[in-house]
From TrEMBL:
Domain of life: Eukaryota
Gene Ontology biological process terms, A to Z: cellular response to starvation; filamentous growth; filamentous growth of a population of unicellular organisms in response to biotic stimulus; filamentous growth of a population of unicellular organisms in response to starvation; mRNA splicing, via spliceosome
Biased composition (Acidic residues): 205-233
Function statement: Required for pre-mRNA splicing.
Similarity annotation: Belongs to the PRP38 family.
Principal place of residence: nucleus
GO CC terms of this entry: precatalytic spliceosome
Name of the protein in its database record: Pre-mRNA-splicing factor 38
Matches recorded under Pfam families: PRP38
Length: 233
């Protein structure tokens, strides 16, 4: 009896991109989805809302970023995100949510729209839209799943972040606020294909020029000191 010398390769699990499913609300895991639908906030405010009526609900009730707490109760942020996934607004409406007619007054509406874009848009559009928010330094609050205690043993329930950090978190992390984010095509691949421009890093040129000028003056002063000869020499 001859042994089978054919090497055995473990089959890799196939990846199913849920961004292209018919029902976008399936992007949220079933347990969280059912808890949102059973919550009082969803039944009272979101159940019959549409693309227009959900805006005042977000502005009035969403004051922090969060998923579920330690008791698995859904936050208003993830509940409104779930409702947006159910409604599936058009790209024109999403753009209005994001820019707010260039007023940018409601930062949590911006943060909510950014994670909606991250969940549903193709990789190329995600990168091109997110690049515009790397210079947005508005503060955001993120609610911790379990509180941490400071040196005085007082509980801390929130941490401070900024919109540019929130954008970077959505691009880098695989899981955010209890949600598994769809995979992104690496930016370098899109750049090599010519589908996306290289990332632009925003550096304050004036500070760099002042620093270089200061170093040049320092070097010039050292050269003058070396060329100086005293009478006692």
């Amino acid at each position: 009896m001859t042994e089978n010398t054919t090497p055995y390769y473990k089959k890799q699990a196939s990846y199913q991109d849920k961004r292209y499913t018919i029902n976008k609300s399936n992007l949220i895991e079933p347990i969280i989805r059912h808890r949102i639908q059973d919550s009082l906030f969803y039944k009272q405010h979101l159940y019959l809302s549409n693309e227009a009526t959900i805006l005042p609900i977000i502005i009035e009730h969403v004051h922090y970023i969060g998923g579920t707490d330690s008791s698995n109760r859904p936050s208003t942020f993830i509940s409104c995100l779930f409702r947006l996934l159910e409604l599936e607004p058009s790209k024109e409406i999403i753009k209005t949510y994001l820019t707010q007619l260039d007023f940018n007054e409601f930062k949590y509406l911006t943060a909510l729209t950014l994670i909606y874009i991250r969940l549903t848009y193709p990789s190329q559009e995600v990168y091109s839209i997110f690049d515009q928010y790397f210079q947005d330094f508005r503060k955001l609050r993120i609610k911790l799943k379990t509180p941490v205690f400071d040196s005085q043993k007082l509980p801390i329930h929130y941490k401070i972040t900024f919109i540019d950090e929130w954008v970077d978190t959505l691009l880098v992390n695989e899981r955010v606020i209890d949600l598994m984010l769809p995979r992104l095509i690496p930016r370098t691949t899109l750049v090599e294909r010519g589908q996306l421009a290289p990332r632009q890093y925003y550096i304050d040129v004036s500070d760099e020029e002042e620093k270089d000028a200061g170093e040049e003056e320092k070097d010039a002063g050292e050269e003058e000191d070396n060329d100086y000869e005293s009478d006692s020499d």
